[in-house]
Design brief:
Layout (H helix, E strand, L loop, with lengths): L5 H12 L6 E9 L5 E10 L6 E7 L1 H15 L1
Antiparallel strand pairs: 1-2, 2-3
């Protein structure tokens, strides 16, 4: 995890431990890649309503973050 995102990811994990069944939660954070770069990921967690299981999925959203930054830069010019 990127050092600036560690606290946010820790809070996500803490909240996940206490989530009621049938609920879901998301967090966006940067993860370190093998090449030394960071990429943005959106991690979604859902607690099963039937069994005590947590389903996790993650999606690379770096392109979205870069597009938003580019648009913000264009608006400030």
């Amino acid at each position: 995890m990127h050092p600036e995102d560690r606290a946010k990811v820790g809070q996500f994990a803490e909240r996940l431990e206490h989530m009621p069944r049938g609920s879901s939660l998301q967090v966006e954070a940067r993860a370190l890649c093998k090449d030394g770069s960071y990429r943005w990921f959106r991690c979604s967690a859902a607690v099963s309503s039937e069994e005590p299981l947590v389903y996790l999925s993650a999606m690379d959203v770096t392109d979205v973050f870069e597009a938003v930054e580019q648009l913000a830069g264009e608006r400030t010019r």
